[in-house]
Target: Response regulator
Amino acid sequence: MASKAKTIFLADDDPEDQEILKDAILKQAPSVNIHSVMNGQQAIDYLINCPDDDLPSLLIFDYKMPIFNAVEILERIADVPQLQTIPKVVWSTSNQADHAKRCMDMGAALYFVKPTKTEELDNIARQMLDLGKD
Model:
C-alpha cells in the first residue's frame, strides 16, 4: 500500500504570499499536499479539529494575520497534545527581533523574514521541508 503524502499547513492572509511559498515548496517536494487558510481563527479551528490521521507534518504561520497573529495561534495550540510534536515555523515581513523571540518562546522552531529574491525563498522552503521530515 502506498504511503500517504505529507501535508503542510499554511496560514497566511496574503494570497500572493501563499502562492509563492506553495510554488517554492512544491518545486522541491511535488508530492506534498498544502492545506492553507486565510486567518488565525481558521488556523486554530482547523488544527484543533483535525483528525489525528490527517495531521500535517509541518505548520507554517504568517506572523500578522486577521483575528489572531502567529503568537496568539501558538499560545492557543500549545496545550493540544497531538500538535505538540509538529514543527512550527513563522514567516513574516517583520524583521523585528522581539517578534521572532516571542514566536520562538511560544514554540516556533524557525522564524523567517519573507524574502524578496527567489533564491532566498527556495532556501527558506528547503529549510522548512527539512524541518518537517520525520
Notes: The chain has a mean pLDDT of 94. The longest strand covers residues 7-11. The chain has one domain: 7-131.
